Amino acid sequence: MSSRRTAAVAGSLVAASFSAVVILSGTAGAEDEGPASSKGGKVVDEAPAGVKLTTLLPEKISVDNDSEKTALTATVKNEGNKDSGKIRLLVVGFDGLTVKNVQGCSAIAENNLPEGSNSGFSCPVGNLAAGESKSYAVDATYDLGKTGKICLPVQTGDGKKTFWQQGPVPFGTTNPSPDAPATPLLLGTDNEPVSPGKPDSPGGKELPKTGPARDLLPLGAAGASLLAAGVAGMWWSQRRRPGVQDG
């Protein structure tokens, strides 16, 4: 093989390797996701006959320890045998988990966010046919020095009824790894923060927690408090102003 041809082949291999690295780095968050789960979900208002709406979140996500960035997929599904009618999906962050963007969705104004949340997006799903699902790419950050939760309510298009709500469900780890490139977090696990660079620090797991006192409750109790009084979407409507509509 001539030296010119050898150089050309070598150059092609380097270019291919570089492309592979770029592709892998761009999809790392998605590849880290485990099987989808409806853990922490519950029916709120009864859906129309033949409609069964649920949501799914990945069992596992990965947080970059330097940038605190993470990515996940939020899915809404109609498991019934009739079309859903016009619905919307909300993606809301709590505590250390902040939702930065949801593809195809609109940010919820700060004064319309549910109490205790720090961010949220409204996704106009429209009519979801029987047996169909729709997924949304979610970009977020996670402060590993705190606990973090996410919530996925599925509502009528006007927000007057909430057919299903997953969460606020935590992502977290009981084995922090501040010196690693990334920290894997599991759905349904309360995060145990550790001081950055001091994994053996006695006070590492005793950092002050932020947010309302109810955030210190177990998931079940916290979820129950959000849906207390039997009022559909109580947690959502208590901060909404009359006549204000989000995306």
Explain what the structure shows.
It comes from Streptomyces afghaniensis 772. Keywords: Signal. This is Gram-positive cocci surface proteins LPxTG domain-containing protein. Residues 1-30 form the signal peptide. Residues 165-216 are annotated as: Disordered. The chain has 247 residues and is α+β, with helices and mostly antiparallel strands. The chain has a domain at 36-173: Sandwich (Immunoglobulin-like), CATH 2.60.40. The chain contains three helices and 13 strands. It has helices at residues 3-32, 219-226, 234-237; strands at 36-37, 41-43, 53-58, 60-64, 69-78, 86-95, 97-102, 106-107, 117-127, 133-142, 148-156, 162-172, 182-187. The strands form two sheets. Strands 2, 4, 6, 8, 9, 11, 12 and 13 form an eight-stranded antiparallel beta sheet that branches. The radius of gyration is 21 Å and the shape is globular. Residues 2-31, 197-234 and 237-247 have low confidence and may be disordered.
